[in-house]
Amino acid sequence: MKRALAASILVIAFATTSPGLACDPKVDKTCCDPKVDKLCPGYHKIDHFGYTNASGQEPSTVVDPAAPDVIQGGAGHGAHLQPGAPARHHQRRATSTATGGGGGPAPAAAPPANDLVPVREFLRNSDIPPREAGVYGVIVFQSLPTPATRAKALMVCLSFVAFFPRNETLSDTIAMGDRMITIWPVDDPSSAKAQADDCDFAIDHYDMAASFTAIRDAKKQSASFDGEGPYLVGWSPSNTRGVPGQLVLVVDMSDDHNQETIDHQFLFWKNHIVQNPSLWRSGFSLEGVRVAIHDFADEYGQDMLDAIKLVGAGKP
Amino acid sequence: MIKATLSAAIGLLLGIALVWWVRPDAQAGAVFIVVAATLIGPVIGALISFVQGLRKASGVARDGGGES
User: Fold this and answer.
1) Which residue in A117, A150, A199, A299 has a CA-CA distance of 20 to 30 Å to A160?
2) How many CA atoms lie less than 13 Å away from A275 in the CB half-sphere?
3) Nearest CA-CA partner of A281 in A228, A241, A245
4) Contact between chains at A298 and B25 (C-beta distance less than 8 A)
């Protein structure tokens, strides 16, 4: 009896302290309100971590002055993330809602100094990694699109375009080292269609060489690519690519077959993983569990309930 | 009987907490999570009781073996 009560108290305590529930939009306007933004449920805010900037500048990135001593400089080599450091990073809603929208001329507003800004770019394989990039990731497909995979590739491209502003639209005041660049490799990035964010072009002209290279380098770092993909593969800092023992960030979208779940993965990538890779260090994350339960309940919930009703109705 | 009811109540609480955390989009998904957790609660409770019973039984046997 006592054990059962203790267990229930533990469960409730866990639920209330989990990251997905840590943010109260009524208190903190910077966090995501699921009632307003359907893309953000559960992806609220990561508490208690910090990071330094990508360009190795002084550790002025500390947002929470209460814990300035836990942030260390980037040692001049890209972003240096500090998993578990008790500083507090406030997500900016402005970046999470920014979209590419065909490369509009107006540059995005400059964020607070030394904050990583997620952007996107179409690049050919020879231009990867982008020069001076602090953190970057590559969209990795296992193959060029086939009739079976084209629809999914299109959804991935739409998310890619929708979730990040184009790199060139950002103000020059944001150093390259402070940008987190997500790359869609294409064989002709200077094409007018690529400039216009034409997803059909991006899919048809996907640069498989970049994919093979990314997979090869990530495999050296013990990443696994057994699924059908696609994957978001990233290195943070960028100079850890292909270095055995260093962290490679991999988001596997093999089991994501609709736009909403792919959007979730991009949001997770943009807001959480790259800025706090400890979440994904072992390939396991509490957020992944949450999404898995969410998808299962939504997809099969009604069928399961019908089955239970059927069994119940069979009883005398 | 009381144990089963208590386990089901804990399962129900757990289910509600899960819905809060998972935030399913479909109403059926939320109902399913609560129902599943409520059903699983007594099963886990029975399993725990079973394991405890086994431990007790093995303890008694060991004590008995020592005396003989």
Assistant:
1) A299
2) 27
3) A245
4) yes
